[in-house]
Design a protein that fits this description.
238 residues; six-stranded parallel β-sheet; 8 helices; 6 strands; binds farnesyl diphosphate
Amino acid sequence: VNQSTSQFTGQHLAIIMDGNGRWATRRGWPRSAGHRAGAEAVRRVISAAADRGIGVLTLFAFSGDNWQRPAREVETLMNLFRRFLRREAAQCARHGIRLNVIGRRDRLGLPLNSAIDAAERQTRSGTRLLVRVAVDYSARDSIVAAAREGGPVDREDFARRLGAVSHGLAGVPDVDLLIRTGGERRLSDFLLWESAYAELYFSGVMWPDFGAAELDLALQDFAARERRFGRVDMGRAG
Ligand code: FPP
């Protein structure tokens, strides 16, 4: 772990994993092959994140709008998530990695819901790295749901509600670095409130090709940024 990447210790990294479909299509393969390769990249990046001392890793796996994809592709993805949770939970538990699935659960079906409950239960004592997988997640829907709870609220209360309405664990800090792969440069309804002061990093690499080397490039770039949270840098002021 070099100096610039070690600056990320304990911080919150969020990733929009994009480009699975194009990765596969370019090879003349079905999109599902891209998603399977994407699941391998998820395993690699979780392991690299744990090695680098990252505190929270939030991965955008399926958005509320992704339901509009062809039914077969949706089914492939749901099956991948279920198998991933079933297969990786024990491994995560052994490595001190805690899993939490954020988003809505009422549209996911019983088998996936059971896999989520089991994975969260199996890994709940993990303290090294929290991995949050966003499935049927929409930042706007979470904000509306949190607002609907009613009653007086300040920023901290609202952040707590926002976590609670999407099945998130309490006390998760805001996003420090948000990476999007696949060459597009947009937020796509991911963690809008939590990324208010996130540094943004866009990579042209398709998600199935993303790994430790690409992660280190992003962390090095982050280390060179000056984070001011709307204030002036007192070292340079006046
Ligand atoms: C974006 O590629 C990716 C998704 C919509 C799904 C993300 C899913 C994975 C990475 C697979 C497994 C995940 C877990 C947590 C096991 P795209 O299909 O939008 O690609 P395109 O933009 O090239 O079409």
